[in-house]
Amino acid sequence: MLFKEVVGQSEVKHKLIDMVQSEKIPHAMMILGPEGNGNLALALAFTQYIQCENKGEVDSCGVCGSCTKNQKFIHPDVHFTFPVVPKKNESSKGPPISADYIVDWRSALATDSYMSVNDWLQNIGAENRQGNITVRECHEIIKGMNLKTYESKYKVQIIWLAEFLKEAGNTLLKIIEEPPADTIFILIVENIDFVLNTIISRTQLIKVNAIDDEDVRQGLLSRFEMDEPAARRIARISDGNFNAALTAAGGQDSDNDKLLHKWLVCCFNLKNKPSATNGQNLFEWVEEISKIGRENQKIFLKYALFFLRECAHVSMTGKSEKLEGEELKFATGLSSKLEPEHFETLSQIFNRLYYHIERNGNPKILFLSNSFRIASVFKNEEVILEG
Ligand SMILES: [Zn+2]
Prior knowledge:
Oligomer: single chain
Helix content: 40-55%
Largest sheet: 5 strands, parallel
Structural class: alpha/beta
Distance between the termini: 49 Å
CATH superfamily of the largest domain: P-loop containing nucleotide triphosphate hydrolases
Order of helices and strands: HEHHEHHHEHEHEHHHHHHHHH
CATH architecture of the largest domain: 3-Layer(aba) Sandwich
CATH topology of the largest domain: Rossmann fold
Strand order of the largest sheet: 2-3-4-1-5
Number of strands: 5
Bound molecules: zinc ion
């Protein structure tokens, strides 16, 4: 991957390029930042730049033998580790390792290096099983790093989502502290709370923020034939997560604002104006949301979270830089009636619902049961919601 293919993040790109040019590449680094911000894309571009045989000032050449192999993720001096699950219907030959899924991995990277861990795990048929980086995989890493380099000066070991190492990370402490010559460990982490302190202290930390809205917008326009307002609309709800932006761009451009408005009105009425008609309205709404498909439901929930954040913003500052027209009117009305703890509760409901939708939960049951949860937030509140 070329640096120019990585969306935004120009400051980090400069830092990485500078490390190579000044020959100050740490032997172990941790790229830390939230999902969808391009951590993995940056690691891939950095690796390619390190190994490029004809590198320029700001990017790899993209055409040398090394670049060609890196672009296909088949360079013999680049090793990948990522969370996996045991393969189904296969006689057990020990705990799963990344090599079992290397073909799927290469094809996933070729499609989207901004994928979330859940995208990846669903892709390899994990369903509800948790991904893992096993002790057996750690031994494979040690074996690989002790091999001589084949073609390049450096061997690179990328560990995508080192938080999945859990206690198995102890196996790697020694090699990360005293790696064989010309070895570079790149650990990618989204949630540092789950990484062993002994690992963190042995790496150089590179923090990567969420992507700027403007860079997300430009990234979308360079990849899709879409109009400017649509790109801007998606950028503002994606919250710097390019994976979410890609999902939204590939989904149907539905009226999520109207859909959300209708839902909250249904939930409010359910508690405050109970009637057969209002109950029927909620059932119809659930039917409607169930038909749009899982990916669009996820986009809808991202929108709901975005809208809630903006409501909280309006509630605190009296204004929003991201909402306008009817959306702003609705947000102003809603935010003036909700207490801070209500934002928290609603946000937890939307997040939990997203989590279960993503893991193939039944949308009808999930949206219906969570409608009752939302309704209970509105209970006894003087919240005026006009449908
Ligand atoms: Zn090259």
